[in-house]
């Protein structure tokens, strides 16, 4: 018999008091706890809660094993799939939360609509919606940029993927999103039958999302036509026996794409604008590139290849603040990671944020330096240590969509406005399901004139 060998880590939380203490620490400052334990035990450590091993991993090769080479041994974790306290409560059995053959089929159905070539036709909508937002701004206004970015990316995803206009639902979805985010972390200790205010908030959020998504599906059924969008593709797809997707399944896929497709991109832009405001020298370089290429006009898809610095800024911002900062998995059989024993049922957390901040892979890791992603520095980057979109078979299906959107929106906004923080204003992280700025992102927006080179 092979002897089990477990990664180092703190003592097991095996009585109710140590479990509650661990739970409260996680609730209070999960990132702080992960960082502290990493400093003590390294890039792979484990602790037991009850009978379950929890692995916390930020070693690039070990993450690669879980996501790519040994991906078959891991499913999405039980906390995510918990239909009362996990994301599955809202997303049901959609792409993000399903597994196995079912997931594979659904992924095959959705993939063509998000393919790099296909999404090119979405560029114009992305820019038009951004211009509409900018036309509603005025110089000197103090805005919560996180609200602006969420509203914008939400409208874009609904229009491009479902041909739907959700402009009058923005506020309701914003509230629902707060409830969805509150599902981050370990499940609460309060039993399911206690009608807490939190439980009521979750019910309201579920109702809001159902109203909107079933509304979109009902609207589609009125004609039942292939409009060439993702929703049509999903609803018209047939199994080998000629069966269509049920409305329930279409709802789960639609709500998944709706939520996964806007909140993350919104956060990548939030952090980018915060970083630009804190680093005027980077902002000046960005402005110089935008002015030289766009000369004050709106960006188009064709411009993107001439905006390499814009792309570098987005990539570096996602290194420092990866919107999906942690990925959860569960071992479906006894296995190993980096030679350590991982019994069936173990929870495996890949902390992308920690890998993105590790000095061994990123010199001066806390410094905002878009030049790291310059073409000439490409060979110096450990690709396994930079995975904002994950990797392997479950890599983000909206990767190309998100990169195109983030670059276009940044270019459109930064060519017309500068966004600034108050002197000394601190923006803290709120590591929920996504990495949000705590208490929103109040910033002052000011019109800027492009500096045009005289011919
Ligand atoms: C900056 C923006 C984005 C980031 C950082 C991001 C990140 C990620 C990551 C890390 C995963 C893997 C999660 C896991 O395995 O547990 C993921 C999966 C996913 N993302 Fe994204 N995402 C972004 C934008 C988008 C967009 C725009 C869409 C849709 C249009 C989208 C749809 C999805 C879906 C459906 C999955 C599940 C895929 C599967 O498991 O097959 N994401 N994303």
List the helices and strands and how they pair.
Elements: H1 16-41, E1 44-49, E2 52-57, H2 60-69, E3 74-76, H3 78-81, H4 88-91, H5 100-110, H6 123-136, E4 141-144, H7 145-162, H8 170-181, H9 197-223, H10 230-236, H11 247-260, H12 263-278, H13 280-294, H14 308-320, E5 326-331, E6 335-337, E7 340-342, E8 347-351, H15 352-356, H16 399-416, E9 417-420, E10 429-431, E11 435-437, E12 442-447
Parallel strand pairs: 2-8
Antiparallel strand pairs: 1-2, 3-5, 4-12, 5-8, 6-7, 9-12, 10-11
Helix pairs in contact: 6-7, 6-16, 7-11, 7-12, 8-9, 9-11, 12-14, 12-16
The protein binds protoporphyrin IX containing FE.
**Low-confidence runs:** none
| Tally of contiguous helical segments | 16
Total domain modules: 1
> How many beta-strand runs?
12
Radius of gyration: 22 Å
Largest sheet: 5 strands, mixed
CATH architecture: Orthogonal Bundle
Which percent range fits the helix content?
40-55%
What ligands does this structure carry? protoporphyrin IX containing FE
Shape call: globular
State the order of secondary-structure elements, H for helix, E for strand. HEEHEHHHHEHHHHHHHHEEEEHHEEEE
The CATH superfamily is known as Cytochrome P450
User: DSSP strand (E) fraction?
Assistant: 5-15%
Mean pLDDT: 91
């Amino acid at each position: 018999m092979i002897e089990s060998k477990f990664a180092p880590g703190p003592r097991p939380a095996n009585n109710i008091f140590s479990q509650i203490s661990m739970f409260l620490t996680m609730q209070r400052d999960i990132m702080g706890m992960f960082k502290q334990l990493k400093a003590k035990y390294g890039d792979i450590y484990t602790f037991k809660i009850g009978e379950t091993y929890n692995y916390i991993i930020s070693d690039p090769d070990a993450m690669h094993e879980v996501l790519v080479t040994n991906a078959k041994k891991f499913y999405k974790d039980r906390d995510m799939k918990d239909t009362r306290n996990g994301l599955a409560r809202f997303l049901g059995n959609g792409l993000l939360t399903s597994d196995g053959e079912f997931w594979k089929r659904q992924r095959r159905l959705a993939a063509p609509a998000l393919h790099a070539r296909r999404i090119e036709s979405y560029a114009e909508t992305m820019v038009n919606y951004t211009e509409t937002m900018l036309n509603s701004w005025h110089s000197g206004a103090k805005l919560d940029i996180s609200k602006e970015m969420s509203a914008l990316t939400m409208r874009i995803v609904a229009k491009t993927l479902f041909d739907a206009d959700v402009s009058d639902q923005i506020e309701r979805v914003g509230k629902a999103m707060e409830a969805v985010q509150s599902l981050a972390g370990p499940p609460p200790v309060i039993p399911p039958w206690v009608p807490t205010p939190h439980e009521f908030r979750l019910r309201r959020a579920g109702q809001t999302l159902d109203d909107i998504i079933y509304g979109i599906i009902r609207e589609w059924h009125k004609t039942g036509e292939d409009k060439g969008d993702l929703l049509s593709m999903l609803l018209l797809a047939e199994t080998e026996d000629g069966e269509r997707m049920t409305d329930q399944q279409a709802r789960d896929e639609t709500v998944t794409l709706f939520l996964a497709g806007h909140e993350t991109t919104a956060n990548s832009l939030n952090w980018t604008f915060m970083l630009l405001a804190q680093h005027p020298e980077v902002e000046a370089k960005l402005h110089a590139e935008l002015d030289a290429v766009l000369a004050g006009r709106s960006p188009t898809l064709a411009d993107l290849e001439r905006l390499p610095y814009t792309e570098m800024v987005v990539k570096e911002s996602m290194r420092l603040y990866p919107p999906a900062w942690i990925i959860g998995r569960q071992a479906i059989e006894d296995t190993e990671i980096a030679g350590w024993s991982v019994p069936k049922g173990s929870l495996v957390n890949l902390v992308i944020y920690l890998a993105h901040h590790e000095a061994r892979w990123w010199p001066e890791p806390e410094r905002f330096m878009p030049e790291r992603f310059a073409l000439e520095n490409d060979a110096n980057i450990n690709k396994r240590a930079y995975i904002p979109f994950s990797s392997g078979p479950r890599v983000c299906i909206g990767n190309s969509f998100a990169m195109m959107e983030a670059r276009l929106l940044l270019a459109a906004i930064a060519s017309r406005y500068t966004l600034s923080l108050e002197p000394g204003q601190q923006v803290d992280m709120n590591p929920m399901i996504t990495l949000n700025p705590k208490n929103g992102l109040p910033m002052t927006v000011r019109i800027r004139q492009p500096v045009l080179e005289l011919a």
